[in-house]
Design a protein that fits this description.
By secondary structure, this protein is mostly beta strands. The chain folds into 2 domains: 3-31 and 297-578, no CATH class; 40-284, Neuraminidase (6 Propeller), CATH 2.120.10. It has 3 helices and 40 strands. Strands 30-27-32-25-34-39-36-37 form an 8-stranded antiparallel sheet, with helices on one face. It has an 8-stranded antiparallel sheet with strand order 29-28-31-26-33-40-35-38, with no helix packed on it. The longest helix is centred in the N-terminal third of the chain and has 14 residues, at 3-16.
């Protein structure tokens, strides 16, 4: 991404207004949830059901009548995915409880993990780890005897099989750790220590012991001297859900025969979290981190497990903001670059299905093409029957008929044509309605076989205080080249583009998929200023913020606030930078 494009976007914003503005593009967040963010899902093999547990251990039934439910995982959109060992299906439950089959034909699927772009399924009966795309496509990626648990984390893949744990790094190198007893599930707990990301691995075994593998490779019993009846599913409570920090970082173990889910602090202090049936596998519902006071600036951490993994490409992107009227609607854009083949994307405007008070009741979505054409969608079912079917097949049809969506193939940038490859999406309220909305862009193409990619994404919105700050997110998927992601929060510079009331001093905070704050910046020259200058994309105002980091495949959140609770219009951006591409 060149500086020329960055400047031209701001110039367009000031010169031609909303209709032809091509700001650089958008971000990803949860939709409506059947459970509250931070609640725990548990499968039950005896009852053939899935339960939801609130933070206080109270339980409600989520799904019944299943066929041997095993692994469970929740994606960034609050959709729940369950492996059915009996049917060989991978089930999807949308946030309103609608059930469908994402993929079928698995041989005894047990464990499942989500890396932010793809699912990994442990096919115990096929001796394989299979990657599943958002469209249900299946690709075997690892041959391993009778796998049970699987976790994709920080660019590495962790698999339990036999009596060992296998760690597969991004460069395909493998490490096998012998644990002496048949292994079951695996969980990976990440935390930043002195600026370095460290991973602790927790594995349940048939011997009734849960093992903890420390970052230095030491294996210890967890907790010391504690044995279980039949420990299986393991999960840890992620950070920052619904503003409630109670239990964050605690580890949960499903003891099926005892009919209990036990909760442990990091130090191993135990209490019974809930008693119900025969709990099997566990998964927490994650959510957008709640705004919190900015921490002291710290460098972006690097994973400490195996070689540094290859950063992923920008895949799915969205932004949540308070949509007002006039110039304070939500404006996002994206740039498609690479190859000559059109890229298929889904763009959505979500409002009434958000589990938030003050949600936008009837969003309207506009897509502005480089040639000035404007495509508008009010209600997603206004699309043609073919486009509706395609949205449903892609598992991206909104759950509320008043929400908007477009599925469209868009040409990438043509260097001989000024402005090509730049697209703008605008979300307004129908009849000038206002409220909180979510704008999303999904890349439906296979990144391993498609040359074009989303290289620059951003959204312009109004930053207020409390929960009404600018919240963006993106999902990175696997990519074929090295590179980094540059994130920026732009405020004062917008005044030169004709934006009234720009945010004078924005801050930028980056969270990982577990809700952990991994980087913070107030003024971009505070950290890594030489590297940021070298990209050719350094902010032009010293009060603006930037974070440059190599991000492995996964989901990320960025939050833009005003220093000292100030408010105004800001732009949040993310650029995928190839190492081989010089800055301009």
């Amino acid at each position: 991404m060149s500086l020329h494009h960055s400047r031209s976007l701001l110039a367009l914003l000031g010169r031609t207004g909303l209709a032809s503005c091509a700001v650089a593009a958008a971000f990803i967040f949860a939709g409506q949830a059947a459970a509250a963010p931070g609640d725990l899902y548990a499968t039950d093999l005896t009852a053939n059901a899935v339960y939801i547990f609130a933070n206080d251990g109270t339980v409600q039934t989520f799904a019944t009548g299943l066929d041997q439910p095993q692994g469970v995982v929740v994606d960034a959109g609050a959709n729940v995915f369950v492996c059915e060992a009996g049917s060989g299906d991978l089930l999807k439950f949308t946030s309103d409880g609608t059930k469908s089959v994402l993929a079928s034909g698995f041989a005894n699927p047990i464990g499942i993990s989500f890396d932010g772009a793809y699912f990994l399924v442990a096919e115990n009966g096929a001796d394989a780890i299979t990657r599943v795309g958002p469209d249900g496509s299946k690709t075997p990626v690892l041959t391993i005897t009778a796998p049970r648990g699987v976790v994709a984390k920080d660019g590495n893949t962790f698999v339990t099989h036999g009596t060992s744990l296998v760690i597969v790094a991004a460069d395909s190198s493998m490490q096998e750790i012998e644990l002496g007893s048949a292994t079951r599930d695996v969980a990976v707990v990440s935390e930043t220590v002195n600026g370095v990301l460290e991973e602790t691995i927790i594995v349940s075994t048939d011997s009734g012991i849960v093992n903890k593998i420390l970052p230095d490779g030491t294996i210890v019993q967890f907790p010391l001297g504690t044995t279980f009846d039949t420990p299986n599913g393991i999960a840890f409570r992620p950070a920052r859900f619904s503003g409630d920090e109670d239990g964050v970082g605690n580890i949960y173990v499903a003891d099926a025969a005892a009919g209990e889910i036990l909760e442990f602090t990091k130090a191993g202090v135990e209490e019974t979290f809930a008693s119900v049936g025969n709990p099997n596998f566990l998964a927490f519902e994650r959510a957008t981190p709640s705004p919190s006071p900015p921490p002291s600036p710290s460098p972006s951490p690097s994973p400490s497990v195996s070689p540094s993994p290859t950063p992923g490409l920008l895949r799915n992107i969205s932004t949540r903001d308070n949509v007002l009227t006039g110039d304070n609607v939500m404006i996002g854009g994206f740039i498609i670059r690479g190859g000559a083949t059109a890229k298929t994307v889904v763009i959505r405007a979500i409002g009434p299905s958000l589990p938030l008070s003050g949600a936008l009741s009837n969003p309207v979505l506009e897509l502005n093409l480089p040639d000035g054409t404007v495509i508008t969608n009010n209600d997603w079912k206004d699309n043609s029957a073919a486009d509706q079917a395609a949205l449903i097949a892609a598992q991206l049809a909104p759950t509320n008929d008043l929400e908007s969506a477009l599925i469209i193939s868009l040409p990438p940038e043509d260097v001989s044509t000024t402005g090509s490859g730049l697209y703008t999406a605008i979300v307004r309220g129908n009849n000038s309605g206002t409220g909180i909305a979510l704008m999303e862009v999904y890349d439906l193409d296979d990144p391993l076989t498609t040359a074009s990619e989303l290289v620059n994404i951003s959204t312009r919105g109004f930053v207020s205080t409390g929960d009404d700050v600018l919240i963006g997110g993106f999902i990175t998927g696997p990519g074929s080249d090295d590179g980094k992601v540059l994130m920026r929060a732009i405020g004062p510079t917008l005044a030169a583009a004709g934006v009234s009331n720009p945010l004078q001093d924005p801050t930028l905070e980056l969270f990982d998929g577990d809700g952990n704050s991994v980087a913070f910046n107030n003024d971009w020259k505070d950290t890594a200023s030489d590297e940021i200058l070298g990209t050719g994309l350094a902010p032009t105002n010293e009060s603006e913020s930037a974070i440059l980091s190599a991000l492995v495949a996964g989901s990320y959140t960025v939050i833009v606030r005003g220093v000292n609770d100030t408010s105004g219009v800001a732009l949040v951006e993310a650029y995928h930078l190839e190492n081989s591409t010089p800055a301009h």
